[in-house]
Each structure stands twice: as structure tokens, then as C-alpha cells.
Amino acid sequence: MCEFPLKTYSYSCDCSQNGFSDLHCEVPHPPCWSQPCFNHALCHEEGNNYTCKCLPGFEGNHCELDVNECGSSPCVNGATCIERSWKAHYGFETLLPEHYDPRHAGGYVCRCPPGFTGTLCEEDIDDCASVPCHNGGSCRDSINSYICICSPGYTGVQCSMSTVFSFKSAGNHLSFQSVLVDAEALWNVTLSFRTELKNTVLFRRRSKEAILILELLEGRLQASLNLGKEASVDGASWVLELPKEVADGDWHTVEVALAKGRLLLLLHKQCQGENCGAEAQLKIDSITWESSVHTIVIGSHAEGENSGSFIGCMRDLFVDSQLIIPEEWLNAIVVNITLGCNRCLDNPCKNQATCVTLGQSYQCKCQRPYEGHDCTEGNL
Ligand SMILES: [Ca+2]
Ligand SMILES: [Ca+2]
User: Fold this and answer.
1) Is-above-0.85 flag for pTM?
2) Which-ligand-closest: CA of 116?
3) How many CA atoms lie less than 13 Å away from 370 in the CB half-sphere?
């Protein structure tokens, strides 16, 4: 490129493209001169060679490779994995800083689905922590939700709705109609009751084909079924009884079910042993269980009939697996039924004691010298 003896001429050598420097382009550039390392890696010279010292999150001889940290699916429970090297997510993803910084481009963050937390979204958030279930209901944690297991007498998502109602005098009753859509469906009534009447009716259910009655006779449960339009004349009938005395003023839960070919009478909860259930095989094939309207009267044999009327409280009434909630008795005939169950109305406290309602129970404040739960014991 240069020639002698043109002394009078000056010259310069352009080495910008060939990797050399100095006046005559005879000195090679240092190895890192060409900036061979990618992704902001440091170039480290060793003699005529170089090595690239990668920032976290990059690899390869020239740090040209973005480590695929999300490749192993480290986030659990359906979380989304976002690598810190994904520049396009900055400014949008709240889990990342606002601006990309190559010095912090290694690793990943997990965006958790609702209900989970933790670095890897491995932790199921305790949705019961806020104690959402009321009235003594117990809480079961679920995914981004909870399930309340309500105490007897309450229902609703948070157990804040009462299912309790009471019959204070003869003739009080509740009457409504139920439509069995599926002819094969079970006839089923489950309820809890509290009474001291020894002989009373709990419910009567009537359809075109059958009459089913649940009552107390001498303090014991009896379910009777009569089939046929003229049931008492030419129909078949069955009676089930349970020996346990239940007219004791405490709550009892009873179920009567008429499945295809079987009649069942069951006492739930406190009852244990073989005396808690009775069953009858109907042994009838010819009856047609048509879809039909059923009339159900709770607390009485029929509207306008006072004999055998129920006096006491009921709660958690289910008809064909549907909970019948007092607040939703819009289409029912309701005769003098009171919501709740005020036990003090039964005058349970003796000897001039004062009765105080405690939820669905009561407490007696005794006059001296009486004592005991109902103030019946005394040191006279
Ligand atoms: Ca990466
Ligand atoms: Ca949870």
C-alpha cells in the first residue's frame, strides 16, 4: 500500500477493516477488539485468544444462547413460567421490573393461578383463614374457594341462613307441592324435629298412587305407606316402626324413603345400632310410578285438620333431596309457622326460674334453693 521514495507525500494506512492497527497496520488488534461476546458478556483476553464470561442466564462460547429456564416447567399448579430474559414482557408483567436489565436476565418468575402462592406457586392459599363460615360451621379449604359444613339448622354458602321453624299450636302447618319429574326417582323426606308430644304427625305426602305418613305414636316413629287410589280399600299397605323413644324434647333426624320396591325408615345422627332403621320390601311390580304432583303437608295430616298436629320445632327439611328453606317458602301455604326455635316458649325452666334463649338452646337462671339444668333439683 505504501511506496518509497515519495518522501514529499504523506500517507496514512486505513486498517479499520482488517483487524490490525498502528501506522502501517502491522500490529494486530487485541482479541476482544471485535466485541465477539453477546448479551453483554465480558470478553476476557488470554494471549491471542479470548473467552466470553457470560452473565447469568446465557451460555455458549459467545454467550449467544439464552438459557431456557422455563423448559423444565418449574412452576407448578398450572402457573405460567416467564423467563427474566424475555424482554417483551417487561413493562407488562407485574412480576418483572419495569425495565429489562441484562445483569438480571437469569432465572424466571411464576405467575400463579388464583388460589396459589409461593415462588413456584406450590402453596395452596388457606381460604379458610378469614373464618368465613358462620354459626359454628366448619370450613374446608379448596382451590381459591372454601366449603362450609354448616351446623344443624343452618345453610347457605357461609351458613348464615337458618333452616329452623317452629309450630307453636295445633293447626300450624306447612303445605306445598312437589313435582317428581323422574318417575324412577326416590321419594325422600329427611328432617330434624324436636317435640315432647307423644302422638303427632310429622308429615303426610300424597300423590295419585300413594299416601306416605310419618308420625309419632307413643313417642316412637312410625312410617306408613298406602298404595292405590282407594288406598284404604283395595290398596296394599305397609307400616314401619322404630323402637327408640324420640318425643324427649331433643333434636332427632329422621329419613323416610320410598325407592323402587323398598320403603325405608331411618333415624340418623345420634342413633346407633340395629334399632335405628327399618325396611320393607314392597314386592309389587305392577304399580306405575307416574310423574305426578305430590302434596306434602308438614306438621299436620291435612289442611284444616287439627288432630295430631305437631307442636315443636323442625330444621333441615329436605324433600326429594331439596332443602326447603323458610326464606324460600314463596309457593307454600304457611299457617302460623314461626321462624327459629325459641325453646323458652315451652317453659322448660321450673320453679319460677328465668329462661334465657341461647341460640337454639336455653339456659335457666334458678331461684334458690333450686338448681340443675331446668332448676328441678333443690336442697329443700
Ligand atoms: Ca432465559
Ligand atoms: Ca385454598
Assistant:
1) no
2) 2
3) 14
